[in-house]
Amino acid sequence: MTSPADAIIDLYQRHAATYDGLRGKTLMEGPWLARFRDLLAPGATILDIGCGTGQPIARHFIEQGHAVTGVDSAPAMIALCRTRFPEGDWQVADMRRLALGRRFDGLIAWDSFFHLTPEDQRGMFKVFASHAAPGAALLFTSGPAHGEAIGSFEGEALYHGSLDPGEYRTLLAESGFAVIDHIAEDPSCGGHTIWLAAAA
């Protein structure tokens, strides 16, 4: 039987249209995206890891003049991105094995990275580092403490994993990132646990 962690890609593939309708266009994460953008030069390149359907986050960056490369493991999500933003660079890829051979000025993994198991999350810091240009900004969401949690989406199990905050700090430092800010369960952003960092 497939575990909830292994079922994430198929779950989003089958329910891409439903997810798109539920996600909507509201940017409750707007203040954090602004802080992320403050670390970037005008027109900086951004890698959106787990970009979903391209809105509202990728759309926001595109409208602000940034060149966005979006990757998602669900082909149905990428198909929606390509329809909405045909000028963009949209690729079907599993973030755990991402190897684009390019470096970006900003990397974001909002509500995507936390669907990985704790062990897979540990491996992602090498992926972040290998795609980060000098001084690159990194913004991602996690859980507030080490563990696993199972939510629900369309009546099916929705997996979330997290490391301990101390381990995130260690992994960021070992990968060449300095933490700029971290808030656990930010009440002003729907209870998201958020990390903002910058590469050396």
TrEMBL record:
Residues 46-135 form the Methyltransferase domain. SUPFAM superfamilies: S-adenosyl-L-methionine-dependent methyltransferases. It holds the Pfam family Methyltransf_25. Keywords: Methyltransferase, Transferase. The keyword Methyltransferase applies. CDD domains: AdoMet_MTases. GO terms for molecular function: methyltransferase activity. One of its GO terms (biological process) is methylation. This is Methyltransferase domain-containing protein. It comes from Bosea robiniae. The lineage of its organism: Bacteria, Pseudomonadati, Pseudomonadota, Alphaproteobacteria, Hyphomicrobiales.
